[in-house]
Amino acid sequence: MTTTIKIENMDAALGARITGVDLARPVDAATRDAIAKAWRDRLILVFPDQNIGDDELIAFTRLFGDLDPPGPNPYGAPFLPEHPEINVISNVMENGKPIGNLGAGEAIWHADMTYIDVPPMGAVLLGLEIPKGEGNTYFANMYAAHDEMPAHLTAAIKGRTCVHDATYNSAGMMRKGYKEVTDPREAPGARHPLVIRHPYTGRDALFLGRRRNAYISGLGLAESEALLDALWAHATQPQFAVTHVWNERDVLMWDNLATLHRRDGFTPTARRVLHRTQIKGARALEAA
Ligand SMILES: [Fe+2]
Q1: Does the CA dihedral 167-169-174-175 come out positive or negative?
Q2: Which CATH number goes with the domain that contains 111?
Q3: Which pTM was predicted?
């Protein structure tokens, strides 16, 4: 039996909704290739109503590359010992201990794990428990942000690299094994070009990673701070972004090299549980 995949672009600078494919069953090569193409083109794909578990989440992710395990979380141990390659995103406490990362607060704009030399190229999230209408996730298209950048910003970052701090996660929690950073010039973490050539599409993208403790090499600290503020203000404008309002059983995959994402906070007493896999990057990022 062949699958009839249906791809509908969202009315935004990125995003597509994919129906007509059951991720609980093996995905044939033609369907996999259609998904991969849509992912390159639209950066964010949403597959509603997927009745899958962790094994199927892992199998689906592996269609697009090797798994990249999560970075160190604030608690120093995997949330799912039986599946250390899965990260749990949750505010739920069980027996006095968090079952997942990030709590219930807002998570500010960022891309995942850009503090390593070869950041993950993508990620897949499975929504298991969702407080209705809360904890929305936003994604912004960094090809569009690059292509529509004012000329003075383009000139200011030409040939420059930026440090991507490893100390804090997107909820502002310090990762286990790190110490507080007071001077961004001394932040531990990878250096990447500010404009990268995407390793899979060859397109140029603005690559910001995360704002906290970022520093643009070769500039004075005040100059770096001012330029970073201008770049982030530009990159996170609504015309480059799409909002995802979660439903339980949504599977959402994103291109981590050509997008930024953030999350709204939600009612702390509500339960929100998502499982996330990551797809390993192929190589260090090259300048455009
Ligand atoms: Fe993230």
Answers
A1: negative
A2: 3.60.130.10
A3: 0.95
